[in-house]
Design brief:
It contains 14 helices and no strands. It is mostly helical and 406 residues long. The site of one fe (ii) ion has 6 residues, from helix 11.
Length: 406
C-alpha cells in the first residue's frame, strides 16, 4: 500500500476498519447471552467495550475528515462474507476464537495503516492509529487465558482487493436469544438469598458470600446482558453514541462481575453456592419500548441502587469490611455514569419533554412494581452527578415542591 495521499483515501481506510469493528460489536452483543460460562461471557462482554472505544476514536477522525455522519463501509466482498459465516458458529470457544482472529486481523491492518500515513499532512490519524493499536493489544491480552495462543491467527480479511463498486454499509444482523444461558452449577429459584437486612447479613462469612453471590450472579452479569441487548435491538436505529454508551456499560458491568468473583472466592465462596432469581433480566423484559427498558434498568434499578450504594458503604465502614467498601466506591463511580446514560437517552427519546419523561418512568414503575425511590435515603449529590434533574429529584424522589435549598 502506498502512502495515503488524500483525505478521501484515509477516510476510506478508516471507514472499512470501522465497518469491521461495528460488525464485531453486533456479533459480540448477540453472542453474550448464548454463552453459559461466566468467564467466557465476561470476556466477550469486555470485548464489546474495547471494540466500541476503538470505533468511537475512528468515528471522531472520520468526522474531522468531513464526513459528518460516519457511514462505515467496506469495499471488499470477503469481509461481510466472513461475518455471515460466523453466524453459524455455535461452540462458545469457537466464538471466542473468531473474536480473537478478527481482532488480530484488525491489529495487522492498523499496523499497515500506520506505515502508510503521511505523518505531516495526516498527523491526527497517527494518534488514532496509536490509540486503536493499544486498545486491540489490550483486548487480545485479555484473551490469552481463554484461547490458546496458536488460535490467534490473522484471518486475512483485509487481504482481498479493494473494489469501490462493492461499497457496502450493511453489517451482519445476528439473532439473539430471550433468556441468557447460565452455567449448570447456577440454579434458578424464586427464593431471595438475601434473607436478612444488609447490616445483619454481613456479620457472618456465609452472609458476605450470599451478598457477593447475589451481586455477581443476579445484578452485574444481567446488567451487562441488558446493555448488550439494547445494542442488538436498538443500536441500528439510534445515534451511534447510543451504542458507544451501552458498550461502555457492558464493559463496566462485566468488570464489576470480575471484581465480585474475585471477592467471592476471597471469602471462600464460589459460583453456584446459592441460587439466583433472574429478577433483573426478567424486569427488563417487561419494558415495551427502549425508553421503558432504560427506565427499568438505568433509572429505577440503578438510580435506586445509587442511594443504596451510599448506605452500603457506610455499613461496610462500620463493619470494617474495607475490601467491600473499595469495591462499592468504584461501583458507585461507574453507576453514576450508567444512570446518566439512562437520563440522556430517555430525554432524547421523549424529545426532551419533562412530562413525557415522567410518564415513561411511571409506566415502568407500574410494570415492575417497585417504589421510587427505594428503601435507602435519597443521596441528592449522587443523583445530581448522575444527571437526574433538580425538578425530577424534588417531584419524583423527595416528593415535595422544588426549593432553593438543594
Ligand atoms: Fe454494576
Ligand atoms: Fe451499572
Amino acid at each position: 500500500m502506498e502512502t495515503l495521499k488524500s483525505v478521501e483515501t484515509t477516510r476510506n481506510r478508516l471507514s472499512e476498519i470501522g465497518f469491521v469493528f461495528k460488525s464485531l460489536i453486533y456479533l459480540e452483543c448477540a453472542w453474550i447471552p448464548t454463552i453459559a460460562d461466566f468467564d467466557v461471557k465476561v470476556i466477550v462482554g469486555e470485548g464489546v467495550g474495547y471494540s466500541a472505544q476503538a470505533l468511537e476514536i475512528i468515528a471522531v477522525r472520520i468526522r474531522e475528515l468531513n464526513e459528518l455522519e460516519p457511514s462505515f463501509k467496506t469495499y471488499r466482498s470477503e469481509i461481510p462474507k466472513v461475518f455471515e459465516e460466523a453466524l453459524n458458529i455455535s461452540d462458545p470457544l469457537e466464538k471466542a476464537c473468531f473474536i480473537c482472529q478478527i481482532s488480530t486481523s484488525l491489529l495487522q491492518e492498523i499496523k499497515v495503516l500506520e506505515e502508510n500515513i503521511d505523518t505531516l499532512f495526516d498527523q491526527p490519524t497517527v494518534w488514532v492509529v496509536y490509540s486503536v493499536k493499544s486498545i486491540l493489544e489490550h483486548k487480545l491480552r485479555e484473551w490469552t487465558d481463554i484461547v490458546e495462543h496458536d488460535r490467534f491467527i490473522d484471518k486475512k480479511i483485509f487481504a482481498g482487493p479493494i473494489d469501490h463498486t462493492l461499497a457496502t454499509l450493511e453489517t451482519v444482523k445476528p439473532t439473539t436469544i430471550d433468556q441468557p444461558l447460565r452455567p449448570d452449577c447456577l440454579i434458578q429459584s424464586p427464593q431471595n438469598i438475601l434473607d436478612k437486612p444488609t447490616n445483619e447479613l454481613l456479620k457472618s462469612k456465609d452472609g458476605i458470600c450470599r451478598f457477593i453471590h447475589f451481586i455477581y450472579s443476579e445484578i452485574e452479569v444481567s446488567a451487562a446482558e441488558i446493555c448488550a441487548r439494547n445494542i442488538s435491538d436498538f443500536g441500528p436505529v439510534m445515534p451511534l453514541q447510543f451504542t458507544f454508551d451501552m458498550a461502555r456499560q457492558v464493559m463496566d458491568e462485566m468488570r464489576h462481575a470480575k471484581m465480585a468473583k474475585k471477592l467471592l472466592y476471597k471469602y471462600g465462596g464460589e459460583l453456584g453456592d446459592f441460587t439466583y432469581r433472574n429478577h433483573v433480566w426478567n424486569s427488563y423484559l417487561l419494558g415495551d419500548s427502549l425508553a421503558e427498558k432504560l427506565a427499568i434498568e438505568q433509572i429505577i434499578g440503578e438510580g435506586n441502587g445509587l442511594d443504596t450504594t451510599a448506605l452500603s458503604i457506610s455499613i461496610f465502614d462500620e463493619l470494617g469490611l474495607s475490601d467491600l467498601k473499595t469495591y462499592y466506591e468504584f461501583l458507585q463511580a461507574d453507576e453514576t455514569i450508567h444512570c446518566a446514560f439512562g437520563n440522556r437517552w430517555i430525554s432524547y427519546l421523549v424529545d426532551y419533554d419533562q412530562s413525557k419523561f415522567d410518564d415513561v418512568i411511571d409506566q415502568a414503575i407500574e410494570k415492575i412494581g417497585v417504589s421510587l425511590p427505594g428503601f435507602a435515603p435519597v443521596d441528592i449529590d449522587l443523583r445530581l452527578n448522575a444527571e437526574f434533574s433538580k425538578e425530577f429529584i424534588y417531584r419524583k424522589l423527595l416528593k415535595k415542591p422544588l426549593t432553593e435549598s438543594i
